[in-house]
Automatic annotation (TrEMBL):
<dbReference type="Pfam" id="PF07729">
    <property type="entry name" value="FCD"/>
</dbReference>
<dbReference type="InterPro" id="IPR036388">
    <property type="entry name" value="WH-like_DNA-bd_sf"/>
</dbReference>
<dbReference type="GO" id="GO:0003677">
    <property type="term" value="F:DNA binding"/>
</dbReference>
<keyword id="KW-0804">Transcription</keyword>
<dbReference type="InterPro" id="IPR011711">
    <property type="entry name" value="GntR_C"/>
</dbReference>
<dbReference type="InterPro" id="IPR036390">
    <property type="entry name" value="WH_DNA-bd_sf"/>
</dbReference>
<keyword id="KW-0238">DNA-binding</keyword>
<protein>
    <submittedName>
        <fullName>GntR family transcriptional regulator</fullName>
    </submittedName>
</protein>
<feature type="domain" description="HTH gntR-type">
    <location>
        <begin position="8"/>
        <end position="75"/>
    </location>
</feature>
<keyword id="KW-0805">Transcription regulation</keyword>
<dbReference type="InterPro" id="IPR008920">
    <property type="entry name" value="TF_FadR/GntR_C"/>
</dbReference>
<dbReference type="Pfam" id="PF00392">
    <property type="entry name" value="GntR"/>
</dbReference>
<dbReference type="InterPro" id="IPR000524">
    <property type="entry name" value="Tscrpt_reg_HTH_GntR"/>
</dbReference>
<dbReference type="GO" id="GO:0003700">
    <property type="term" value="F:DNA-binding transcription factor activity"/>
</dbReference>
Length: 236
């Protein structure tokens, strides 16, 4: 039998387009957009728009307000901490699984993504570095063969991206960002299962602390300790 071709539904297309609008800033944080307004902009009826907004609300990108529409959400420090906790819970064990079970071809793909990451960082491209960073993590975790977990991680990254915040170049250079991944690759190349998990955990925790300090201004020692402890528990 011939396989059925899969085409994105109107809801899936609307979800992708609204999400893109949030990420590129054309849909502004804090503003409310009605289903009618979004439908006219995208050229589709209200039904797929409403379904798309429900999905985006589930992802934490919008909040649906009765008789008004969908409000584009910002984020809070506590929400950022939760996002990084989720990343630690998923990425640390998945990276260990990649180190143990990934094929030679899958490891080669991780190596290629790492070298591309290096090239973008050396060129000093903020946008290119951040994209290469995401691609490296995707390649690393793809070796664990768990698509559900990867989808959850994509949603968490979408949420952070929707805020427009990042550590490069505000708090560290593109090269600093790249070199924060060195220990991950060193451990992966020799299939050091525990070493990969430790390196991934340290990297995510380090990025979280830099980003949270950046977005909250100067933190007192008690706040720094609370954040560090809230992340360290998930590494082990």
């Amino acid at each position: 039998m011939q396989q059925v071709e899969k085409h994105p539904s109107l809801t899936e297309q609307a979800t992708a387009q609204i999400r893109a609008g949030i990420l590129d800033g054309s849909l502004e944080v804090g503003q409310v957009y009605s289903a009618v307004e979004l439908g006219k902009s995208l050229g589709v009826s209200r039904t797929p728009i409403r379904e798309a907004l429900l999905e985006l609300e589930r992802r934490g990108l919008v909040r649906i307000e009765k008789n008004k529409g969908a409000r584009i959400l910002s984020t809070s420090i506590d929400t950022l901490i939760e996002v990084f906790q989720i990343r630690l819970m998923i990425e640390v064990p998945l990276s260990r699984r990649t180190a143990e079970f990934a094929t030679t071809q899958e490891l080669s793909q991780v190596e290629e993504s790492f070298e591309h990451f290096r090239e973008q960082a050396q060129a000093g491209s903020t946008e290119g570095t951040l994209k290469a960073d995401r691609d490296f993590h995707s390649a690393l975790l793809s070796g664990a063969s768990n698509q559900k977990a990867l989808q959850i991680l994509r949603e968490q990254r979408d949420f952070v991206l929707s805020t427009g915040i990042g550590t490069v170049p505000k708090s560290r250079s593109a090269l600093d960002c790249f070199h924060d991944h060195d220990d991950i690759m060193k451990a992966l190349r020799i299939r050091d299962i525990e070493g990969v998990g430790i390196a991934v955990g340290r990297h995510i925790s380090n990025t979280a602390q830099i980003l949270i300090a950046q977005e909250s201004g100067s933190l007192d020692l008690a706040s720094q300790k609370r954040i560090r402890q809230s992340l360290e528990w998930y590494i082990h």
